[in-house]
């Protein structure tokens, strides 16, 4: 698209945008009596207005029927999760049976590694991206140590080439091939939280399988942001959180994907609990764990219904918006517009004051742009916040900005870039 650096152009794009009115479905914090420009959906999505009602409904069910709510009503708690798995399967490109909603993200990463990281003398290495989200690094280190291994031997990090900010798929694939005989697991994020790079999940999965290893993905920044086809791509397992692009509330419930090819593999270990037991016999309370078929068999504990209600409120809005493909089409334009405007500022100032490290290729990114500020980065970030533009800060000098198709407009992107341009005048010399 040919973008223009004018407010009229931004307003004209909003005019054409079928999701333009959708921001009214969300609660936006105020700044000087106006909606803030919230570009932080990569960290915590905004609250859907209907969330309170969904929560209230379950509090009412608890009040009215107490324990009976597990079994009565049109959305009995025992089956409540079934309303979530379908929409989630559509979002990540899975069969319904391959998805389960449970726990929180890092906990699920651990549980899935119990099943899919089974090092032996020959195969014990894990390949991951350098600069993975810290929780994932800690999870992997502790899993490796749990198996009596040294992370220095067992964990291989693939880093960008000198002078580059993001990874080349060919380098990832080469690292996988090079360590092939010793490789147990390839564990990547879907989108790197720091750079915003959307990895080629299909290519990484293929390379892992050619090496004889499993491929798993942490989709925290990808789920609800970019379309994926986990089933078709043959991904072995994945997990994600619901509070970033899926707007389901702070610390919201997480989801997992396990490919159906593993459903009947009784060699896979798992840390079991009664909620993963065969649903038809769970309440017989018999000894000896028998898993429910499918991803539900990885469940451990009783469904947290209140968190699930918040998740349902948010997923229903995804559906109302027309689904992820509709959102993605706008997202590409919205993020492309922000990129265009930032490059305009650099051109006007005659210097790359704001270096975008996120890939330019639309297929290699989602909503987020990660911007290195060459001078006075923190002052620029603070100036944006004081002027009602909320991005997020990553040490030492990166501002992440994620225009989100469900509640951000082209006009907001234009206004954010205007604030950035004023900040450049004030703080960049
Ligand atoms: C946000 C995020 C997490 C957070 O995990 P929690 O268990 O929900 O605290 C983990 N990994 C990645 C890649 C993330 O982006």
TrEMBL record:
SUPFAM superfamilies noted in UniProt: PLP-dependent transferases
Residues bearing PTM N6-(pyridoxal phosphate)lysine: 244
Cofactor or coenzyme needed: pyridoxal 5'-phosphate
EC number: 3.7.1.3
The keyword tRNA processing is annotated on this UniProt entry: no
Keyword tags: Hydrolase, Pyridine nucleotide biosynthesis, Pyridoxal phosphate
Superkingdom in the source lineage: Bacteria
The UniProt record lists the keyword Phosphoprotein: no
Catalytically driven reaction(s): 3-hydroxy-L-kynurenine + H2O = 3-hydroxyanthranilate + L-alanine + H(+); L-kynurenine + H2O = anthranilate + L-alanine + H(+)
An example Gene Ontology biological process: anthranilate metabolic process
Function summary: Catalyzes the cleavage of L-kynurenine (L-Kyn) and L-3-hydroxykynurenine (L-3OHKyn) into anthranilic acid (AA) and 3-hydroxyanthranilic acid (3-OHAA), respectively.
Name by which UniProt lists this protein: Kynureninase
Organism per entry: Mucilaginibacter segetis
Gene that this sequence comes from: kynU
